[in-house]
C-alpha cells in the first residue's frame, strides 16, 4: 500500500514538472513571436513614413511602372 502511494506521488510530481515545462516553453515561444512581430511592425512604420517623401514615391513609380 505504501509503495502505491509513493508511486502515485512520483507520477504526480513528474506530471507537474512536465506541465510546468510545457507552459514555460509556450511562454518563451510567445515572447519570441511577439518580439518578431514588434520588429516587423517597426519596419512597416519606417517604410510607411518613407512614403511621405515625394522623391521616394517618384522613384518607386518609375521603377514599377506598368
Describe this structure in words.
With 66 residues, the protein is an all-alpha fold. The protein has one domain (2-63). It contains 2 helices and no strands. It has helices at residues 2-50, 54-63. The model has no long low-confidence stretch (mean pLDDT 90).
Give a nutshell description of this structure.
This protein has 66 residues and is an all-alpha fold. It contains 2 helices and no strands.
What attributes characterize this protein structure?
66 residues; single chain; 2 helices; 89% helix; mainly alpha
Write the layout of secondary structure elements.
Blueprint: H1 2-50, H2 54-63
Largest sheet: none
- What percent of residues adopt helix (DSSP H or I)? over 70%
Count of extended strands: 0
Low-confidence spans: none
Distance between the termini: 82 Å
Overall form: rod-shaped
Average of the residue pLDDT scores = 90
Order of helices and strands: HH
